Amino acid sequence: MYHFNFTPVFDNFYLLLYGAWLTVRLSFVAMILGLVVSVLGAVARTSRYKILRGLVGAYVEIIRNTPFLIQIFFLFFGLPAVGIALNPNVAALVALVINVGAYGTEITRAGIESVPHGQVEAGRALGLEPVQIFRYVVLKPALRNVYPAMTSQFIYLMLTSSVVSTISANDLASAGADLNAKTFASFEIYLVITAMYLVLSLLFSGLFRLVQHTLFNYPASR
Amino acid sequence: MKFFHTLAAAAIAATALLAPQAQATTLKQIEANGVLKVGMLVDFPPFGTMSATGAPEGYDADTAKALAKYLGTKIQIVPVTGPNRIPYLLSGQVDVLVASLGITPARAERVDFSNPYAGIEIMVYGKKDEDVKDGAGLAGKTIGVVRASTQDAGVTKVAPASATIRRFDDDAAAVQALLSGQVPLIGVSNVIAAQINKAAPGRFDEKFSLSSQVQGVAVVPGSDALLAKINAFVADAMKDGTMDKISEQWLGTKVPDFVRTGTAKAALK
Description:
The structure holds two protein chains of two kinds. Chain A is mainly alpha-helical. In chain A, helix 3 (50-64) packs across helix 5 (88-114) and helix 7 (130-160) packs antiparallel against helix 9. Chain A has nine helices and no strands. The longest helix of chain A has 33 residues, at 13-45. Chain A has one domain (7-213): MetI-like (MetI-like fold, Orthogonal Bundle), CATH 1.10.3720. By secondary structure, chain B is of the alpha/beta class. Chain B has two domains: 23-117 and 216-267, Periplasmic binding protein-like II (D-Maltodextrin-Binding Protein, domain 2, 3-Layer(aba) Sandwich); 120-213, Periplasmic binding protein-like II (D-Maltodextrin-Binding Protein, domain 2, 3-Layer(aba) Sandwich), CATH 3.40.190. Chain B contains twelve helices and 13 strands. Chain B has a five-stranded mixed β-sheet, sandwiched between helices. Chain B has a three-stranded parallel β-sheet with strand order 5-1-6. In chain B, strands 2-3-4 form a three-stranded antiparallel β-sheet, with helices on one face. The longest helix of chain B has 17 residues, at 2-18. The radius of gyration of chain B is 21 Å and the shape is globular. Classes of the chains: A mainly alpha, B alpha/beta. The A-B interface holds A 76-78, 80-81, 85, 88, 165-168, 174, 177-178, 180-182 and B 144, 147-148, 152, 166-169, 173, 176-177, 180-182.
């Protein structure tokens, strides 16, 4: 029978909390910036300029068809060769934004394409400016339509961020690995870390629901 | 319950009686057999590995072959593993161990060691222009290590609070961090340092040593004539360049001074 001994874990719990704090900050900032990249990407992908569509298409395909681990290695170990040495936490953030931006672009594009053209025409008929049409008539309903897909991508982003420990960023997974190396209480540590990731996921889900209630709480158009 | 305790004690006593008594290996026996049986690790590159054709090779293998040549015997290499290498020797299945066995006081209670033929040193290694001579010199610097490695422990112990220790998952990542310029310094073994120096000659050098361990040829306690002969071999091989050649082939550098000048006695202090 295995005897659980959580003492080494809770004696060093502040280390895990510190790691979790970086995971939260990384994920949160990556979600915000990722959303911006996604919207810009989706606009470019649905624009009438072929070159723009092609460039963003290439970005989306390259990122979605290569492993995240390799992308992060490329940014951290590869870029210094051309004089860009990012510190691990910054490299992690950039990698996460680039990664979630590619998936988000496709999700947002699907949202934009789901908005019926008649709605845009209705906006025009009401005398809205093109920017207003994009913001209120296209983008908002588009994001509302794909909100569940987008938020699950964001949760996935938070979980994926555990990979950044490979480039020595000090996130929750890395704090766990360090503590494991010190105490060898692997089972207890990974049990606690799993629970912490679960709690973080649930917290983010709660936050997303709150946003949904605030922004998209109006009757469906169809 | 008491009955079982007695039974268990009896069983343990019986096992102890059955265990083969370590018998000193005499030089004469080996010379009479014409074969030196050497226990060697085959899962510890670059010291002991199996070649593509299944033949043992590496630093240990070449040292063992040179030793057999010195004794004027043939060689039979017996693959052993880390945990079973000392039992192999003590039960007489091999005459000597050339199995990267670090000379430590605990092991010296079971076996006798020759003077060191190889060594592993853990050091702080980095860019040539980094002026770091000791732990205090790491203040304000960034240093990469492999998480939970001996280097990690060594660096963590000597580095002041203002030093940033970056922990990577394996040697490859830590070395990559150094080569790509992400960290100016790393903690590595002399073996890895030699490989780095081969990949990027002249860019990096050793800053200071964190710890070192020397490896000796092990024999059954009391095999004095054999041990004396092995020590003579080690001294000769160090002098005539045999060990340097082996070291250069497998580690990419000559035998370091802490091995050359080291003795089994000094290592056990």
